[in-house]
């Protein structure tokens, strides 16, 4: 190996730097670190020489050669912050503290999630026992494949699709949507608006699909004219509600895919002098803190974040625990929904 090659490596080398210097993939470096087979003697020697040349210290999650145990868990979340992410982070902090662990929060930029090498470079520097991967990054194939190739323990929180490998804590979004539609239907509502969440989230597609399928089952038609795109923000809920309420035959109820968008719907309606729930029923999803604080209090779907995160932490610190935990979502009826006017 040329001296000039090692001089170009940054001060804190990563597994990608080792792979580049040794002329192999980062998966091969991971196999050497974990003392796995399928690596030839010559290749193994090159990797070990690169590790020595760079003074690289492997991640504990990859069975660090230093031994010991890191009492830290990392929460992986998208670069764009949200109220949901803050609630998950608070729940994770409490769950880790109760287990005697520390928590670090690590955001992943959209461009990083498209490149396995960049993912490996960012995560290999972290000295953690495992990763809680929250939506929507938990549905990134590049991220999950990288964690697997680096032998890094992880638990996926509310993923949109089931994978055979790795731990996961799952909820049934589709069933929850059907429950909410049934609630509105029982109140006599037939014109029900639906506001979709961020299009990049798998959960958004699942919730929309469940709404359209179940409504069609009940009414015999698909209410595409009552669907508007949002992005999980209050502003997008306000804008979507504006479009829906401007329709010649507006909805008598609006179901937003999360509570934050539902607050935007309520703001829009009240600004127009539309009484809730007397003239318009509004409901959300998540049962976030704002749901019980806003007026009128919001009918919503309870997502048990504390239980979900606790289960994920247990999966990481007790490797023999259940690798798939499924938790129920519940309907919370408050004052924002009522009989059709």
From TrEMBL:
Keywords: DNA-binding, Transcription, Transcription regulation. This is LacI family transcriptional regulator. It comes from Sphingobium xenophagum. GO terms for molecular function: DNA-binding transcription factor activity; transcription cis-regulatory region binding. It holds the Pfam family Peripla_BP_3. InterPro entries: HTH_LacI (IPR000843), LacI/GalR-like_sensor (IPR046335), Lambda_DNA-bd_dom_sf (IPR010982), Peripla_BP_I (IPR028082). Residues 13-67 form the HTH lacI-type domain. CDD domains: HTH_LacI, PBP1_SalR. It comes from the Bacteria.
């Amino acid at each position: 190996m040329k001296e000039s090659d090692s001089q170009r490596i940054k001060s804190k080398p990563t597994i990608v730097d080792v792979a580049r210097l040794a002329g192999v993939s980062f998966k091969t470096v991971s196999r050497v670190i974990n003392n796995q087979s399928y690596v030839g003697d010559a290749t193994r020697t090159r990797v070990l020489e690169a590790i020595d040349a760079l003074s690289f210290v492997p991640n504990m999650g990859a069975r660090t050669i230093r031994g010991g145990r890191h009492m830290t868990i990392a929460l992986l979340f998208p670069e764009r912050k949200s109220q949901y992410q803050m609630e998950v982070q608070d729940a994770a902090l409490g769950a880790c503290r109760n287990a005697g662990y520390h928590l670090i929060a690590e955001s992943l930029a959209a461009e990083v999630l498209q490149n396995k090498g960049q993912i490996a470079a960012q995560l290999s520097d972290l000295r953690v026992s495992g990763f809680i991967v929250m939506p929507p990054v938990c549905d990134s194939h590049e991220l999950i494949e990288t964690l697997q190739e680096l032998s890094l323990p992880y638990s996926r929180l509310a993923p949109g699709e089931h994978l055979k490998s790795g731990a996961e804590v799952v909820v049934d979004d589709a069933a929850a949507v059907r429950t909410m539609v049934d609630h509105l239907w029982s109140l006599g509502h037939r014109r029900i608006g639906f506001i979709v969440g961020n299009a990049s989230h798998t959960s958004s597609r699942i919730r929309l699909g469940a709404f359209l399928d179940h409504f069609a089952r009940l009414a015999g038609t698909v209410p595409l004219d009552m669907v508007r795109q949002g992005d999980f923000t209050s502003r997008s809920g306000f804008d979507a509600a504006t479009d829906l309420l401007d329709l010649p035959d507006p909805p008598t109820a609006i179901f937003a895919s999360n509570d934050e968008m539902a607050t935007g719907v309520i703001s829009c309606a009240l600004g127009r002098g539309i009484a809730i729930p007397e003239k318009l029923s509004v409901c959300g999803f998540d049962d976030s803190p704002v749901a019980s604080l806003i007026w009128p209090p919001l009918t919503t779907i309870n997502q048990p974040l504390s239980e979900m995160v606790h289960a994920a932490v247990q999966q990481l610190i007790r490797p023999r625990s259940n690798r798939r935990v499924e938790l129920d979502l519940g309907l919370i009826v408050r004052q924002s929904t009522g009989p059709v006017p």
